[in-house]
Design brief:
Elements: E1 2-5, H1 20-28, E2 32-36, H2 47-53, E3 56-58, H3 61-67, E4 70-72, E5 90-93, H4 101-110, E6 113-116, H5 131-148, E7 170-174, H6 178-189, E8 193-198, H7 201-211, E9 215-219, H8 222-228, E10 234-237, H9 252-256, E11 263-266, E12 287-290, E13 293-296, H10 306-327, H11 329-335, H12 337-340, E14 343-346, E15 349-350, H13 353-359
Parallel strand pairs: 1-2, 1-4, 2-3, 4-5, 5-6, 7-8, 7-10, 8-9, 10-11, 11-13
Antiparallel strand pairs: 6-14, 12-13, 14-15
Helix pairs in contact: 1-2, 5-6, 10-11
Amino acid sequence: MRIGVPQEIKNHEYRVGLTPASVRELVAHGHEVLVQAGAGAGAGLADEAYRQAGAQLLPDAPTLFARSDLIVKVKEPQPVELPLLRAGQILYTYLHLAPDPALTAALVRSGAVCIAYETITGPGRSLPLLAPMSEVAGRMAVQVGAAWLEQSRGGMGVLLGGVPGVAPAHVAVLGAGTVGSSAVRIAVGMGARVTVLNRGIERLRELDALYGNRIVTLAASQHNVEAVLPDADLVVGAVLRPGAAAPRLVSRVLVSRMKKGAVVVDVAIDQGGCFETSRPTTHADPTYVVDGVIHYCVTNMPGHVARTSSFALNNATLPHALALADKGWQQAMREDPHLRHGLNVAQGQVTCEAVARQLGLPYTPAELVL
């Protein structure tokens, strides 16, 4: 199979779909890998490394898309890339379709086979291809929030860990999944006062056992959310509904009750965000202010630590890429129900139930297109 790796063109996106090590594995399996020149530069991966791994370098995206059977990306296709997709072509990338009806409609029209990293499952209903980027984003969320709390950036001038004689900042984390747990880890390490809210009590027990009295754990009731946020200096939105839009846990009224100069980092923005006041931003223009509260809602946070993120992502995505290339998408999905859950759009039909329900579109079970 011919596998294409285009350069990512989303704003300040520096990750790459395949590293040279992954290319080498695919070539060893007898596949031809085409890489757009410069695709790995943002992650510090030179074209020569791809050549040595056995890839063929191509000058531009149109040529690469036209010659490839399987496209391996990081982020969803951008508007200029959508016309390059064709019927029957396999697209393997993050898609996050639930909050994006225009992208979904374009993929349906293309006739391509669109497989979303974020809905591929693992044992115990885990999301193994989402997990590494969630770990990165969760860790980054506290770093980013700490920076925007600085007065020079419009924040309230609070040091996250405080100093002797001065209280540390209060960090509230909404959700205790992979993103939230990673954020808690960094916030505790930086010396902040941490409150984590989650609907699943068992997960709170695990965090309580791990951190003891260094954190406060609360059930994520509306009452508790409304009680905690007005006291918080930094709030990390870390809620997830696999394949569906994130629940709006925080109303605009509640945001207006928060401290002036406080910071919101909504990591759930890929799925529409968990604050009523959230809207997508970019690394070029990452924040805006609502009622005196700084909102950081960048949809591709891990793109700014592209080298770490690219290697972490490839660790998770390569086994399925090999299966798709070795067996073809239909046979690979017949054999692996976890991979089958990743099929979001195929042959003009929406095959992810959560996406179809969210967007009010007809749903076709994946089994019917295999």
